[in-house]
Amino acid sequence: MPSAEAIWNGAVLASTDKFETVEGNVYFPPSAVNMQYMKPSSTHTTCGWKGQASYYTIEVDGKQNKDAAWFYPSPLPAASNIKDHVAFWKGLYLGAVALYMNRSSTFPEVLCCWT
């Protein structure tokens, strides 16, 4: 089974071989996330089929990556498999997938693929 890892600013934010993939995003189970790097954010967004997402700002060695992680604390039934799982974007390295933020977009671009 493939494994997934999220890294930012030299720190491993999450690592597991048990993850969910939804719409191209890797969702890490809560037990795989190093919560010492996650700071709750007041940001929330809504997805029509997943529900309301909550965000974390990532903080490593005094540097912050605002709203770079999100999760669904109370997902709609169709997304129950990702309840409390954490996904990442905004310049993080995810396993063999590198996500970079396009400055003109609010969505990440996948620049390379799983190997």
From TrEMBL:
Residues 5-90 form the DUF427 domain. InterPro entries: DUF427 (IPR007361), DUF427_sf (IPR038694). Coiled coil: none annotated. Pfam families: NTP_transf_9. It comes from the Eukaryota. Signal peptide: none annotated. Transmembrane segments: none annotated. This is DUF427 domain-containing protein. It comes from Ceratopteris richardii (Triangle waterfern).
